What we know:
- The two termini are about 20 Å apart.
- This protein has a single domain (about 5-185), classed as 2-enoyl-CoA Hydratase, Chain A, domain 1 (Alpha-Beta Complex), CATH 3.90.226.
- A hairpin with a 1-residue loop joins strand 1 and strand 2 (about 15-20).
- The strands form 3 sheets. A 6-stranded mixed sheet has the order 1-2-4-6-8-10, sandwiched between helices.
- The chain is globular.
- The relative contact order is 0.15.
- The chain has about 250 residues and is of the alpha/beta class.
- The chain contains 10 helices and 10 strands.
Amino acid sequence: xxxxxxxxxxxxxxxxxxxxxxxxxxxxxxxxxxxxxxxxxxxxxxxxxxxxxxxxxxxxxxxxxxxxxxxxxxxxxxxxxxxxxxxxxxxxxxxxxxxxxxxxxxxxxxxxxxxxxxxxxxxxxxxxxxxxxxxxxxxxxxxxxxxxxxxxxxxxxxxxxxxxxxxxxxxxxxxxxxxxxxxxxxxxxxxxxxxxxxxxxxxxxxxxxxxxxxxxxxxxxxxxxxxxxxxxxxxxxxxxxxxxxxxxxxx
Length: 251
């Protein structure tokens, strides 16, 4: 199947946004842009009260940055622009006045952890282990870092950042606050997601919007912060170390 981002209305007031890429739901620039734009548009739609964000397929939730695109970056502007794609998705979630429920059915790696951290309430299966793998290729989780730190704290984020070759379990992620609940199966996950969505659809939308503003207080500087972080990643992806490491994947 081809990559896509699509939105559908599951029931009055509930919009489901799904992203998909055949390579483990990795995120190239075009999918990142579509995802950010779709979230932003849903946030301005008066017919939508709650947003469900998920990925397609039944295995990996999101493998993070597209290695095919990382390998092709040869100048700073292109590198910064690529990582700004993740910044724009995170900021779209942050600025969206609607509550966003995250559905994580499988592993989340790198930018995928950032997406899971940027939603307002995240539910997962027991198969949803997490890893910030950026150091493996000579960069760091600079753009997603603020979202991850906000969700799980600096200590837990440092564990993921430094031990970049090790997955942490879904139970670990739940104990640190990334996941609110962990379910035994995708079917149970979907039941949990819909139970929460139905509850929210029957509460005051204005109260939800005010709650979201409070939850994201002290993040107004993220437009500038994440742009600075994108430049850091864009610079490092051009380093000899990272170029040599990425070349190993281009076989």
